[in-house]
Amino acid sequence: MNAEKTDAPRAVIVISSHVARGSVGNRAAVFALETLGFPVWAVPTVILPWHPGHSRATRIVPPLDQFKALMADLERAPWLGEVRAVLSGYLGEAGQAEAVASLVAAVKEKTPNALYVCDPVMGDSGGLYVPESTAAAMRDKLMPIADIATPNRYELEWMAGAPLPDIKAVTAAALHAVPSTMLVTSAPAMMAGGIGNFLLDGSQALLAEHRVIERPPNGLGDLTAAVYLARILSGQAPVKALQSTTAAVYEILARTAKRGGDELQLETDAQSLSHPMAMVQLRHLLHPGRDKRA
Description:
This protein is an alpha/beta fold. Helix content is 38%, strand content 21%. α2 (26-35) links the parallel β1 and β2 (40-48). The longest helix is centred in the C-terminal third of the chain and has 22 residues, at 238-259.
């Protein structure tokens, strides 16, 4: 047995919402990561019976002092060296951001090459669905310390303070944002009737496109962030990780829609996470160059 490989950190701490029914927040991310072979430490930021988009839903947000105490316990856990990455998503209140940042710092102190992925879950085309103070906490406290961020187009628009009507505008906003690696979901596509995932890092600009499916279930952003993180942790190059992540999420979405499901049916389509068959259009775009940053 190779002790070095066995002992290498593989766990992921996922910090997001928990629903009793459905496949959003931690329910989507934990399932995906564990299916792809990564142990998960799951931390709920809020507990709901279902996604509130379905109907009225009771919100149970842990008292901030208790949430911070739990996160502090994780910081000093004897198993912290198992952790290879942290993924944060929906926050129940603004004050949780400080505790997330502190835990990320503790993980990186223990494992310097650990990754932090910030999925700034704050809104969509209908506007913010968290208080502005919570959105600002994610923008100001979590985005700057992330290695990878996965906002949707609206979230990037809100953080940039300007509309992003086309891929050129999205590219410019991502270029001037932090962190330097941005995976923007729900990005404008270049193909008619399409939508895309746009990835910008220090050396490449990539767009993975597929056709639009009307009235999609919730949880696509949560799933995309988790699957992309798993691909990167498995050693895939960003271009391959983007293409295979987009294919997996699109395939699950398309199959769920065909069945008429109101939630992503991850348990039924788990194979799609590992071996997606869906075809997506991958475009290599002109990189605007980071030396042109204002």
